[in-house]
Design a protein that fits this description.
By secondary structure, the protein is an all-alpha fold. It is flat, with a radius of gyration of 21 Å. The model has no long low-confidence stretch (mean pLDDT 83).
Length: 88
């Protein structure tokens, strides 16, 4: 019975934390909207657009690499530095 109460309490805390995080992102987006509009209006050379496109390409390549990394060889699994591979 005690574990059920603990599970319910931890679920409630997790849900409350997720709601607060979503609310915080919404407030931040609303606060940053005027600054984003000014930045987009002043972006004459297209630097922001290029940066966003580069980020999307990087994110897609990471997703592809994550799918390919599931097929790790035995040598890759025995490498003691495999957890540091994301560092550049």
């Amino acid at each position: 019975m005690q574990t059920l109460a603990v599970d319910i309490a931890s679920t409630f805390v997790d849900d409350a934390w997720a709601i607060l995080g979503g609310f915080g992102r919404t407030v931040l987006r609303l606060a940053m909207a005027p600054i984003d509009r000014i930045a987009n209006a002043c972006d004459i050379a297209g630097v922001l657009t290029e940066r966003r496109a580069t980020f999307r390409m990087w994110r897609a390549s990471r997703a592809r690499a994550r799918l390919e990394s599931r097929r790790i060889s035995l040598l890759g699994r025995l490498n003691p530095f495999r957890h540091l591979a994301h560092l550049t």
